[in-house]
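Section: Multi-chain targets

For targets with more than one molecule, the full set of components is provided together so that the structure can be written out for the assembly as a whole rather than chain by chain. Components appear in the order listed by the source. The example entry contains two components.
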Amino acid sequence: MIRGYAGKFLEVDLSAKSFKEVKFSDEVLKDYVGGRGLAAKILWDRLGSKWETIDPLGPENLLLFLTGPLTGFFPGGRICVSGKSPQSNGVVGSTVGGEFGVELKCAGYDGIIVAGEAEKPVYLFVKDSDLEIRDASHIWGLDAKQTTAVLTRECRELLKARYPQKGEWKEPSILYIGPAGENKVRTAAVAAKWSHAAGYGGYGAVMGSKRLKAIAVKGTGPLPEVADLEGVKTLMQEVCNNAYESELWRRWGTGSAGYEVGARTSSEPVRNWQEEWHDERSFGVNEFENRVWVKQYWGDFGCPTTCLKLAVVRSGRFKGAITDNPDYELQAYLGTNLGIFTPEENVFMASVIDDLGLCGIQTGNVLGFAAELFQRGILTKEDLDGIELKWGDAEAFAALAKKIAYREGIGNILAEGTYRAALKIGEMKGVDVMPYAVQVKGIGVGAHGIRSEKDYPEIYSYACSVQGGDHTSTACMPLDDFRSELMMTFHDSGVYCYFNVFGLSRTLVFNFYKAVTGIELTKEDWVATKAMKIIQLQRAMLLLGGPDLKWNPEIHDDNPPRFYEPLPSGPLKGKAIEKARVDEEKRRYYELVGWDERGIPKSETLRRLGLDDVDKALEKLR
Amino acid sequence: MASEKRALIWIARDLSKCSGCRKCEVACSLFHEKCIWPEASRIRVFMLAPGIEFPHFCAQCEDYPCVEACPVNALSVSKETGAVIVDSNTCIGCGKCIDACPGRIPHLHPKGNKILICDLCGGDPQCVKVCQEGLWNVLRIVPRGNYSYKLYARTPEEIARDLAAKIFGEDGARYV
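Its structure, encoded as tokens over all components, is:
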């Protein structure tokens, strides 16, 4: 057995109300590692032959919660959530921070595979090998904070009653959905700890479709044995020492970027990306720090960076709003993108989004889209059920977010996410609104624009990513660039926080992998064969798509139309991206990853990687 | 006697600063169990509501009610450190010390039914090291004086409710 793994996965069939243990061979674990990689493998093996017919929100879809061998060891614990995505109809490895992955491994499982769907709301309770599908009717409908409080109390009481002599039980780790997930909103997240979200992919909706409100796990065992404990300890220390010296993320998290990315790199979404520059000093990180932070360092298991900051609005109109201080993405998507430029309003928006169980990025994207349609008179106050959706009006945006979460009125359309909403509204109004939809393959683009070419994504990064607009999985050349999605796939498959990797040598994570698992793995081998295989699987499932939408790479391997408009303001005013350049770079990228000129993985690429069945399945696209 | 007392240490604690990183649990279990084992850590970070994580561990009460309560004399006080020492060969895992502790701090080892209490790592607490190294400064070593350390022995619920009110404001305790 390979070290670092608990050695078995738990499969729960909610339709049959049954459990079973699943094991993967050493070969599979060596090739796909865990998390995102293993998710692609499991989904292809089990759903690949009928992929196009699988409804992501139907009982045939699988919902995966996977750790990786490095979870719990590499500082900064996470868990990877996956399945067929109701946003892209492909596969997204969506990770979220917290203790869940560690608890799961301590309970003896490397992951949970959820199949089927429950008849009525349930939650899953795992205490080591004691497994239970429990009634969740009393928590169905509750928001994030209520759900967390009720489940924490309930599970601790359960544990106390069953093991009375143990002493005080620590809380189990909980993943849950809010009302948005329950209502199968495609921008719903699987969440943890109020404000931590696996947002990309829309897996909150998948969890809701299975009527699975939450999973609570308490594991009392140790983390699995590692191959070289002294090596692991030394590497852990190296990662920590590096993080302790990083003033930027330790002090501010990504929160300094709410000002910086606008003012300095002109790549922040402002009013649905109509601009990417602002110089609003009111949005400086010092304002957040002085006005709303109540805890400077907040983090997840083993993390030396603790980049999260706890924020509370103490007085005024938004009094009582609590959240992890909006990180850059949410400062942008629930701030500047909506024309909001004060910390209190931004914290309020994030708190509302947390409570509803929405993904702040995807929801901020669709809210901005709706506001632009309102600005242009395409959506009226009547269409919006009386909401005057003016830029900067946090209360109006919060009201619309609630409509989305509960699928009320216009919310029922916007709940489909920006792309699907754009199709529907375009049809309704007889106007093409796709120019205002800032998304790629059903996934709203992360808050890092490409027009200025001063930020990290390349001009083809989103267009070619196997995870669409996901800013944490950008296509880059060379393929072993630290930003490349082939490298990101390692972090998402080892399952740990890649924020603790910045500043370290790029081979460190592979040395860490060896110390934990005992298996030699070079960066070159990872990129050329293992990550390459995972990316091809993800690409194949993305292109097969269905049942409601399919992507044609010749059309959809592209930037949102907005990114071809020249920047209208700021020091880089007038800067634009030429389509011909994007096409040229795309061709180079296709070449490197072994796709044909239309973007379909080539037969020879797939066969070289041993993916003959994928090759056969893609025949019909060629 | 007096010089012996001056040599004793105590772990001062500033709970509201805790980041919830749990590196203290990692360090404690690596030291005592030679592996990462949060549930077997003598110091445990509770999170009864997100954002109000805090470490829960022995306060070394002046009158050591746990030692008094042990029916089989498995607990003793170390003369060198003032820590409560568990003789795991004698401990029967009855839990009387848990009930005697005002903070219900002792807990059973997940394997083997023996009680776990902070032993101050023999005078060089590993949890303090990692907390200091990361500059969180929740834990700090101070000389043990003649104070009511027992005040620090409080249950997780009591601590969580107070911290929630302190951190989140007047309604904070409802999240616990």
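DSSP finds 24 helices and 17 strands in chain A.
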